[in-house]
Amino acid sequence: MFQGMTLVIAVRDLQLSSRYYQDQLGFQIREIEDPGWRCFERDHVAIMAGECPDAMPAAELGDHSFIASIRVDDAKALYTELTEKQVTIVKQICDESWGMREFGIQTIDGHRIMFAQSI
User: What is the pLDDT of the chain when averaged over all its residues?
Assistant: First the structure.
């Protein structure tokens, strides 16, 4: 039985990305014993970030930079929260024919994340 999932991403500047995930996206920061790594957690979602200053920026992957679709209870409320914090929206909130209300963001490292609610 699956019990959860942790995403693993590369970021250019761990300090800057940590502040972004905390201040803009509302994640808590959990320090771990391995230098150059941090865990960002919000509710039941965890993202491990590793500092990789020489990695290809995710933004250069264009539409292939999507890393996750995170299920949420209230997409409209989260959309409002994130737009008020001036998070970059790459897909406006909308109701899709496949039964999801969803929107997408792009992080400061260029990763794209979708947020989706069953409707």
Answer: 93
